[in-house]
Amino acid sequence: MRRIAVLAEGYFNWQDAKTAVGILRYRSDTVVAVIDSTNVGRDAAQVLGDPDGPGKGVPVVANVSAALAYAPDTLVIGIAPIGGQLPAVWKAEILQAIAAGLDIVSGLHHFLSDDTELAAAAKRHRVTIWDVRRPPDELAMRIGEGRAHRPGSHVAYFCGTDCNVGKMTVALECAREAKQRGLSAAFAATGQTGIMIEGSGIPADRFISDFLAGGVEGMVLDLAERFDWVFVEGQGSLLHPAYSAVTLGLLHGAAPDLLVLCHEAGRSHIRRYQVPIPPIPRVRAIYEEAAGWLKPASTVALALNTFGMSDAAAREAIAQAQRETQLPTTDPVRFGAGPILDALLAAV
Q1: Is residue 227 helix, strand or coil?
Q2: pTM for this one?
């Protein structure tokens, strides 16, 4: 069990600091402080706009020096910016954390352990730097083989209309619901935040493209041997102008039996791009067609992210989406993942 300080300087909000939010919501370790000088003195949950949600009781402090008062043993980089680079002004904070004896966990594309100054400091102070996005050696250059999963196992892939619509969250909520019902289930992490939460997985967006499907296949085959249900975290979107290649590699490598489609209520365009999101039934057909090039997979449920809406507005949005798609629909964070898991079980 770690005592974690999360570094999210200037970015601590539910979109830009999704790593921090994921750690607060799902990691079993104790988060003792969040570092963001723009929100000093506030409760982390209040900053995120959900006073009773993740981060309740976790103080927001100005810097690493202030965080040390809460006795952390680990500093987690709490953001995943476009391009995955370390903000230059953060290096001094990381060096201070290392000097104080804190291990460092980073999900950036910029590998901190490759930085000679940081690596030397870590060696000197006998702390570890875990670059979560470094692919595991045994899967980093694995070619896809198209191997079938263990009979009796079921693989569900959580696809999305865009980035940041809740694919990881929905997969985690479904895995939690399945385990609570006594089912044999595993969450297959494919992104830096999911890996930090689960403690294992593959960083899909860091794989050489030739080996992504093979790496995902290797991970899923292993989990399917040990668990009856494998919930594979999706990344990006087949519609995304920058990240669609990652999504397709994941989809084909996972070779899912079933799909769960994730969408944010009211989002009409790919975030930061002027690319319209088609109607949900069309997005469903796109995913099913792409999966079907190798193995048929049907969409059995829709997860609708209703963050920021009132309960009444959320229920109406869910009802409207269900009418439009004829799929069981819910917001699993607000109303529970039961309907989605019921749909998955009914499908098999």
Answers
A1: coil
A2: 0.93
